[in-house]
């Protein structure tokens, strides 16, 4: 990736004087921000100083945002209200749940699955999250394990000491929703595999393996993410890689997804655009939102996703649905339904989604990663094509404060 060139371009733009902006507070914004959280605004539970400086620019004297902002994170182990409270404390600004997009937030639009009995996996309030998203019949991994204790056999301390009585009345599972990486990977990998191989009845004796298998909807494809540790941590993308490998090794067939949600999926960016436009309308800003600025620290999810969506915007304006995904017919259908749900058409005023990479998280400008390595080692999900150009950000800046300054200058809001 030509990251060094992008960094020089970002610095040059920040140094270059822009034309004077008259009537700054009275001119409605024609742009909005999609801000990643981990590695951009916070590191673990600690806010980054640049984040508070950025929001001093974004907010007026009364603490109200002058530009529409959504917080676009692949986290999914909490409720949107809890994440909003966390961000409010970190940024010293009132953040509403309507501004927060967790990895699973767009699942509320997949209503064709809401009446099915689904197995949900992840951390935090997974059952509450699922019900808030619209799922009516929810089974957790823990409930499944308790119903069928003989299935979870890796941890010797959790094996039943006596043969349990047969389980009766447990519902047949009709789909699997993966919110994020679980705590006990071995339990989740085993039980999810059991559900897929048994067509939703893991207590029954295994017969012919069904294929296609039950619908699987997965959120958060990040192989790595950044917390307080000096090195990136394994994320849900790593868990998905394990599940895919196990399923293929056991069956000889590919695990298929009905939907992949969270960055870098265009579904998530389309949903973020929808919320940006809603914010502008709520504020009474009449100027159409034409430009989105996506700020992130991870080239493999934040930058790839923003660039992928930028391509989607271009092709959508040409009445083509081609975003670089190797999609199945089912996935294409889900994407089309989502666009219809959000009222998407080729007359949308949004023209571009520019990607801005910061150096405060996964990507470190001084890391010395060889250029050829960055171009050949793809950390993205297997169902997304590897196009090195999608990993190249529009701009590289030091931190989110510089990213906001850069966008203001490009929009003549300096």
Automatic annotation (TrEMBL):
GO cellular component terms, semicolon-separated: mitochondrion
Organism: Erithacus rubecula (European robin)
Protein name as catalogued: Haloacid dehalogenase-like hydrolase domain-containing 5
InterPro entries the record matches: CDP-alcohol_PTase-I, HAD-like_sf, HAD-SF_hydro_IIA, HAD-SF_hydro_IIA_CECR5, HAD_sf
Example GO BP: glycerophospholipid biosynthetic process
Family: Belongs to the HAD-like hydrolase superfamily.
Entry GO MF terms: hydrolase activity
Gene3D superfamilies for the chain: HAD superfamily/HAD-like
Pfam families: Hydrolase_6
Keyword Acetylation: no
Entry keyword set: Hydrolase, Signal
Domain of life where this protein originates: Eukaryota
């Amino acid at each position: 990736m030509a990251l060094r060139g992008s960094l020089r371009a970002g610095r040059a733009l920040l140094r270059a004087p822009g034309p004077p902006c008259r009537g700054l507070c009275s001119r409605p914004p024609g742009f909005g921000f999609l801000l990643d959280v981990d590695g951009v605004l916070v590191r673990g539970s600690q806010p980054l100083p640049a984040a508070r400086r950025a929001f001093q620019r974004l907010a007026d004297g009364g603490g109200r945002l002058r530009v529409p902002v959504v917080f676009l994170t692949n986290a999914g182990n909490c409720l949107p209200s809890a994440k909003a409270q966390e961000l409010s404390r970190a940024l010293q600004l009132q953040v509403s749940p309507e501004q927060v997009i967790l990895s699973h937030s767009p699942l509320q639009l997949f209503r064709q699955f809401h009446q099915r009995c689904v197995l949900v996996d992840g951390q935090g309030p997974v059952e509450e999250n699922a019900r808030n998203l619209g799922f009516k019949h929810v089974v957790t991994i823990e409930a499944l394990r308790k119903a069928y204790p003989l299935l979870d056999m890796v941890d010797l301390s959790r094996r039943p000491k006596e043969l349990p009585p047969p389980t009766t009345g447990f519902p047949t599972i009709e789909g699997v929703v993966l919110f994020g990486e679980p705590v006990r990977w071995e339990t989740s990998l085993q039980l999810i595999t059991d559900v897929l191989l048994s067509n939703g009845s893991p207590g029954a004796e295994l017969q012919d393996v069904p294929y296609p298998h039950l619908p699987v909807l997965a959120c958060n494809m990040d192989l790595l993410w950044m917390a307080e540790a000096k090195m990136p941590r394994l994320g849900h993308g790593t868990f998905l890689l394990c599940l895919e490998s196990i399923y293929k090794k056991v069956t000889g067939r590919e695990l298929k997804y009905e939907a992949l949600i969270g960055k870098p999926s265009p579904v998530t960016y389309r949903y973020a655009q929808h919320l940006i436009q809603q914010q502008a309308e709520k504020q009474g800003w009449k100027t159409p939102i034409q430009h989105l600025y996506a700020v992130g620290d991870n080239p493999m999810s934040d930058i790839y996703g923003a660039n992928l969506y930028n391509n989607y915007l271009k092709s959508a304006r040409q009445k083509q649905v081609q975003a670089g995904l190797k999609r199945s017919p089912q996935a294409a259908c889900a994407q089309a339904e989502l666009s219809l749900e959000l009222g998407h058409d080729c007359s949308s005023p949004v023209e571009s989604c520019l990607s801005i990479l910061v150096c405060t998280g996964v990507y470190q400008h001084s890391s010395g990663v060889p250029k050829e390595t960055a171009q050949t080692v793809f950390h993205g999900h297997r169902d997304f094509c590897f196009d090195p150009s999608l990993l190249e950000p529009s701009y590289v800046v030091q931190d989110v404060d510089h990213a906001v300054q850069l966008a203001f200058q490009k929009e003549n809001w300096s």
